Amino acid sequence: MQKKEIITITGTIGSGKSSVADKIAEKLGYRRFSSGDFMRKIALDMGLTLNELSLQAQTSKGIDLKIDEEVKKAGELDKIVIDSRLAFHWIPKSFKVYLDLPPEIAKERILKNLKENKLRQESEHATTPEEVYGQIRRRRRSEEYRYMKLYGVNHTDHSNFDLVIDTNKNDLNQVVDIIVREYKKWREKIK
Predict the structure, then answer these.
(1) Strand, coil or helix: what is 11?
(2) Which of 90, 75, 98, 94 is CA-nearest to residue 13?
(3) CA dist., res. 134 & res. 131, Å (int)
(4) b/e map 66-90, b = 16+ CB within 10 Å
(5) Facing residues of 181 across strands?
(6) What domains are there in the chain, each with its CATH number?
């Protein structure tokens, strides 16, 4: 099996997937694709919040199929970093990374990011840690239900990944350095 020059990143909500993917792409000179940003744009186009879109996706599989098609298209490229819940599933020849973070910590990071990220502000309406925590829990349940129902995939099962990192124990630069180092080792291995 020919390995691709693709890093796929998934993980818990608020674990830093986008920030990590941006830095890795910059460091390696790779392109970048975020299914989260793509989903936020769909939500805005439909006049919905991200959580409302997730709930609608439970009964309208076309939403997930549209996102998955974009991820698959990105997976046809080389030298790309993709942050997406299911990219590891759609691009099995990629280096698959899972970022872990408890929701109690993630809520603070998301709240901070809401103040800085215009796309997130427009698609996620929360002003308190409690509201963010509730959104995290609802969104995670929705995703777990949808991905299992549609594809029989558990996107939180660590055994699906080449590397699992706790982003609470490592800062952004450490996480990026660990991934780049392990990715280079993975690329060097002959299968």
Answers:
(1) strand
(2) 98
(3) 5
(4) ebbebbeebbeeeebbbbbbbbbbb
(5) none
(6) 6-185 (3.40.50.300)
Burial class (CB in 10 A: 0-12, 13-18, 19+), 62: exposed
Q: How far apart are CA 56 and CA 72, in angstroms?
A: 22
Distances (CA, A) of 79 to 32, 74, 96: 9, 10, 14
Q: What angle (nearest 5°) sits at the alpha carbon of residue 15, between those of residues 9 and 21?
A: 40
Q: What is the predicted pLDDT for the residue at 38?
A: 87
Give the torsion through C-alpha atoms of 139, 50, 24, 168, to 10 deg: -40
CB atoms within 10 A of CB 59: 8
Mean pLDDT over each residue of the chain, to the nearest integer: 86
- Answer yes or no: is pLDDT of 118 > 80: no
- Please tell me the pTM assigned to this model: 0.81
Token pair 């975020």 is found at: 34
pLDDT digits 0-9 by tens, 7-50: 999 998 889 999 999 999 999 999 999 988 888 888 889 998 87
pLDDT at 120 over 80: no
Q: How far apart are CA 41 and CA 77, in angstroms?
A: 22
Partners of 81 in the β-ladder: 7, 32
